[in-house]
Amino acid sequence: LNYHTAEFTISAPTLAHCPSDSGAEVAFAGRSNAGKSSSINTLTGSSRLARTSKTPGRTQLINFFGLNSGSMQRLVDLPGYGFAKVPEKVKLEWQRHLSEYLVKRQSLRGIVLVMDIRHPLTEFDQMMLQWADEVQKPVHILLTKSDKLKRGAAKTTLLEVRKALKEWEDLVSVQMFSALKKDGVDELKTKLDSWLEF
Ligand code: GDP
Fold first, then answer.
1. Which of 22, 33, 91, 158 sits most deeply, having the most CB atoms within 10 A of its CB?
2. What range(s) does the EngB-type G domain occupy (predicted)?
3. Ligand 1 touching residue 145 (CB < 6 A)
Protein backbone atom coordinates (compact mmCIF):
# COMPACT_ATOMS: atom_id res chain seq x y z
CA LEU A 1 0.00 0.00 0.00
CA ASN A 2 1.12 3.54 -0.65
CA TYR A 3 0.97 5.29 2.73
CA HIS A 4 1.92 8.59 1.14
CA THR A 5 -1.64 8.81 -0.21
CA ALA A 6 -3.03 9.27 3.32
CA GLU A 7 -5.44 12.15 3.57
CA PHE A 8 -7.26 13.52 6.59
CA THR A 9 -10.91 12.44 6.53
CA ILE A 10 -12.58 13.35 9.81
CA SER A 11 -12.12 13.91 13.55
CA ALA A 12 -14.56 12.01 15.72
CA PRO A 13 -15.21 12.85 19.38
CA THR A 14 -16.94 9.52 20.03
CA LEU A 15 -17.57 6.19 18.34
CA ALA A 16 -20.88 7.46 16.99
CA HIS A 17 -19.06 10.09 14.92
CA CYS A 18 -16.60 7.66 13.29
CA PRO A 19 -16.87 6.90 9.56
CA SER A 20 -18.81 3.84 8.48
CA ASP A 21 -17.38 0.69 10.01
CA SER A 22 -16.45 -1.09 6.76
CA GLY A 23 -13.17 -1.83 5.05
CA ALA A 24 -10.06 -2.05 7.20
CA GLU A 25 -8.21 0.27 9.53
CA VAL A 26 -5.16 0.36 11.76
CA ALA A 27 -5.10 2.50 14.89
CA PHE A 28 -2.07 4.28 16.37
CA ALA A 29 -2.01 4.68 20.14
CA GLY A 30 0.55 6.01 22.55
CA ARG A 31 1.12 8.01 25.67
CA SER A 32 1.47 11.71 24.85
CA ASN A 33 4.94 12.64 23.78
CA ALA A 34 5.86 9.02 23.00
CA GLY A 35 6.29 10.04 19.35
CA LYS A 36 2.98 8.90 17.83
CA SER A 37 2.40 11.92 15.57
CA SER A 38 5.99 11.81 14.34
CA SER A 39 5.69 8.12 13.48
CA ILE A 40 2.47 8.70 11.51
CA ASN A 41 4.07 11.63 9.71
CA THR A 42 7.14 9.55 8.85
CA LEU A 43 5.04 6.66 7.59
CA THR A 44 2.94 8.92 5.40
CA GLY A 45 5.81 11.15 4.28
CA SER A 46 3.91 14.20 5.47
CA SER A 47 5.40 16.68 7.86
CA ARG A 48 2.07 17.67 9.38
CA LEU A 49 -0.60 15.10 8.70
CA ALA A 50 -0.90 14.14 12.36
CA ARG A 51 -0.53 17.34 14.33
CA THR A 52 2.42 17.34 16.63
CA SER A 53 0.95 20.26 18.53
CA LYS A 54 0.14 19.63 22.14
CA THR A 55 -3.34 21.10 22.43
CA PRO A 56 -4.99 18.87 25.05
CA GLY A 57 -8.50 19.54 23.70
CA ARG A 58 -7.63 18.30 20.24
CA THR A 59 -5.98 15.16 21.47
CA GLN A 60 -9.32 13.81 22.62
CA LEU A 61 -10.46 13.31 19.07
CA ILE A 62 -10.11 10.13 17.02
CA ASN A 63 -8.59 11.27 13.72
CA PHE A 64 -9.12 9.28 10.52
CA PHE A 65 -6.86 9.27 7.44
CA GLY A 66 -8.00 7.54 4.26
CA LEU A 67 -5.53 5.76 1.97
CA ASN A 68 -5.69 5.70 -1.83
CA SER A 69 -8.25 8.51 -1.96
CA GLY A 70 -10.95 6.20 -0.63
CA SER A 71 -12.10 5.29 2.82
CA MET A 72 -11.87 1.50 2.61
CA GLN A 73 -8.39 1.48 4.14
CA ARG A 74 -7.66 3.90 6.93
CA LEU A 75 -5.07 4.96 9.47
CA VAL A 76 -6.54 6.10 12.77
CA ASP A 77 -4.83 8.41 15.24
CA LEU A 78 -6.24 7.62 18.67
CA PRO A 79 -6.38 10.24 21.43
CA GLY A 80 -3.09 10.86 23.19
CA TYR A 81 -3.07 10.14 26.87
CA GLY A 82 -1.23 11.27 29.93
CA PHE A 83 -1.36 15.03 30.18
CA ALA A 84 -0.56 15.72 33.81
CA LYS A 85 -2.92 18.70 33.92
CA VAL A 86 -6.01 16.91 32.66
CA PRO A 87 -8.58 16.27 35.41
CA GLU A 88 -9.37 12.71 36.41
CA LYS A 89 -12.88 13.01 34.98
CA VAL A 90 -11.50 13.81 31.51
CA LYS A 91 -9.06 10.92 31.72
CA LEU A 92 -11.92 8.56 32.48
CA GLU A 93 -13.82 9.92 29.47
CA TRP A 94 -10.82 9.18 27.24
CA GLN A 95 -10.58 5.67 28.60
CA ARG A 96 -14.25 5.11 27.95
CA HIS A 97 -14.05 6.32 24.34
CA LEU A 98 -10.86 4.39 23.65
CA SER A 99 -12.14 1.13 25.07
CA GLU A 100 -15.47 1.54 23.30
CA TYR A 101 -13.64 2.08 20.00
CA LEU A 102 -11.45 -0.98 20.56
CA VAL A 103 -14.30 -3.24 21.57
CA LYS A 104 -16.86 -2.22 18.95
CA ARG A 105 -14.91 -1.30 15.83
CA GLN A 106 -15.24 -4.27 13.45
CA SER A 107 -12.92 -2.85 10.79
CA LEU A 108 -10.04 -2.47 13.27
CA ARG A 109 -7.37 -4.92 12.10
CA GLY A 110 -4.62 -4.05 14.52
CA ILE A 111 -3.10 -1.47 16.85
CA VAL A 112 0.28 0.21 16.53
CA LEU A 113 1.34 1.03 20.06
CA VAL A 114 4.02 3.74 20.08
CA MET A 115 6.44 3.82 23.01
CA ASP A 116 9.46 6.01 23.67
CA ILE A 117 12.28 3.43 23.71
CA ARG A 118 13.64 5.09 26.85
CA HIS A 119 10.32 4.60 28.71
CA PRO A 120 8.64 1.46 27.39
CA LEU A 121 5.61 -0.29 28.89
CA THR A 122 4.07 2.58 30.82
CA GLU A 123 0.83 2.16 32.71
CA PHE A 124 -1.01 3.40 29.61
CA ASP A 125 0.77 0.82 27.45
CA GLN A 126 -0.14 -1.98 29.85
CA MET A 127 -3.79 -0.87 29.75
CA MET A 128 -3.80 -0.88 25.93
CA LEU A 129 -2.20 -4.34 25.82
CA GLN A 130 -4.78 -5.62 28.27
CA TRP A 131 -7.68 -4.26 26.22
CA ALA A 132 -6.20 -5.55 22.95
CA ASP A 133 -5.86 -8.98 24.53
CA GLU A 134 -9.47 -8.88 25.71
CA VAL A 135 -10.73 -8.19 22.19
CA GLN A 136 -8.01 -10.39 20.60
CA LYS A 137 -6.68 -7.67 18.29
CA PRO A 138 -3.00 -7.79 17.31
CA VAL A 139 -0.62 -5.11 18.57
CA HIS A 140 2.57 -3.97 16.86
CA ILE A 141 4.85 -2.03 19.19
CA LEU A 142 7.11 0.73 17.89
CA LEU A 143 10.02 1.45 20.21
CA THR A 144 10.55 4.87 18.77
CA LYS A 145 13.24 7.52 19.22
CA SER A 146 15.73 4.63 18.92
CA ASP A 147 18.26 7.27 17.81
CA LYS A 148 18.30 8.47 21.43
CA LEU A 149 20.07 5.28 22.58
CA LYS A 150 23.30 3.62 21.51
CA ARG A 151 22.80 0.56 19.30
CA GLY A 152 23.60 -1.91 22.07
CA ALA A 153 21.24 -0.28 24.57
CA ALA A 154 18.43 -0.08 22.01
CA LYS A 155 18.85 -3.76 21.14
CA THR A 156 18.82 -4.70 24.82
CA THR A 157 15.53 -2.80 25.32
CA LEU A 158 14.02 -4.51 22.28
CA LEU A 159 14.88 -7.94 23.70
CA GLU A 160 13.66 -6.99 27.18
CA VAL A 161 10.31 -5.76 25.88
CA ARG A 162 9.88 -8.92 23.77
CA LYS A 163 10.70 -11.02 26.82
CA ALA A 164 8.28 -9.10 29.05
CA LEU A 165 5.48 -9.72 26.52
CA LYS A 166 6.32 -13.37 25.85
CA GLU A 167 2.95 -14.58 27.14
CA TRP A 168 1.28 -12.45 24.42
CA GLU A 169 3.64 -13.32 21.57
CA ASP A 170 0.82 -14.64 19.37
CA LEU A 171 -0.76 -11.18 19.28
CA VAL A 172 2.16 -8.85 19.92
CA SER A 173 5.18 -7.93 17.80
CA VAL A 174 7.90 -5.37 18.58
CA GLN A 175 10.31 -3.34 16.46
CA MET A 176 12.65 -0.38 16.79
CA PHE A 177 11.77 2.86 15.03
CA SER A 178 13.16 6.35 14.59
CA ALA A 179 11.19 9.15 13.00
CA LEU A 180 14.31 11.29 13.10
CA LYS A 181 16.49 8.78 11.21
CA LYS A 182 13.58 7.21 9.28
CA ASP A 183 14.63 3.82 10.63
CA GLY A 184 12.14 0.95 10.71
CA VAL A 185 9.71 2.41 8.17
CA ASP A 186 9.82 -0.63 5.84
CA GLU A 187 9.28 -3.04 8.72
CA LEU A 188 6.26 -1.01 9.84
CA LYS A 189 4.85 -0.90 6.30
CA THR A 190 5.16 -4.67 5.92
CA LYS A 191 3.16 -5.16 9.12
CA LEU A 192 0.47 -2.65 8.09
CA ASP A 193 0.21 -4.19 4.61
CA SER A 194 -0.46 -7.58 6.18
CA TRP A 195 -3.22 -6.10 8.34
CA LEU A 196 -4.89 -3.87 5.76
CA GLU A 197 -5.04 -6.12 2.72
CA PHE A 198 -8.39 -7.71 1.99
P1 GDP B 1 3.07 12.42 20.37
O2 GDP B 1 2.59 13.28 21.49
O3 GDP B 1 3.15 10.98 20.80
O4 GDP B 1 2.33 12.60 19.10
O5 GDP B 1 4.61 12.82 20.14
P6 GDP B 1 5.30 13.69 18.98
O7 GDP B 1 5.34 12.91 17.71
O8 GDP B 1 4.71 15.03 18.96
O9 GDP B 1 6.80 13.73 19.55
C10 GDP B 1 7.11 14.21 20.84
C11 GDP B 1 8.51 14.79 20.84
O12 GDP B 1 9.47 13.78 20.55
C13 GDP B 1 8.72 15.87 19.77
O14 GDP B 1 9.57 16.85 20.31
C15 GDP B 1 9.40 15.13 18.64
O16 GDP B 1 10.22 15.95 17.85
C17 GDP B 1 10.23 14.10 19.38
N18 GDP B 1 10.42 12.86 18.57
C19 GDP B 1 9.45 12.12 17.99
N20 GDP B 1 9.98 11.06 17.35
C21 GDP B 1 11.32 11.14 17.50
C22 GDP B 1 12.44 10.32 17.06
O23 GDP B 1 12.30 9.29 16.37
N24 GDP B 1 13.69 10.72 17.45
C25 GDP B 1 13.90 11.83 18.23
N26 GDP B 1 15.15 12.12 18.55
N27 GDP B 1 12.87 12.62 18.64
C28 GDP B 1 11.60 12.28 18.30
1. 158
2. 22-198
3. yes
